[in-house]
Backbone:
């Protein structure tokens, strides 16, 4: 969670960071901006980035799901 609303970080580069997601058996990849996962919290008026750490030791961390914050 960041200290201010997401819009205040546009000029400071938050929208310039991205995840590079490569497929297992392919040379193709996706570039997904970090801002895709950022939204303002209604209660705190702060920018929340909905990204969780993946841990190879945990079964549920061996795959990723995009769009789960919409459900």
Residues:
């Amino acid at each position: 969670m960041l200290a201010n609303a997401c819009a205040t970080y546009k000029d400071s580069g938050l929208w310039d960071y991205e995840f590079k997601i490569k497929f297992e058996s392919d040379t193709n990849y996706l570039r997904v901006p970090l801002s895709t996962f950022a939204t303002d919290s209604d209660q705190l008026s702060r920018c929340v980035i909905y990204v969780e750490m993946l841990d190879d030791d945990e079964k549920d961390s061996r795959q990723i799901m995009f769009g789960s914050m919409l459900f």
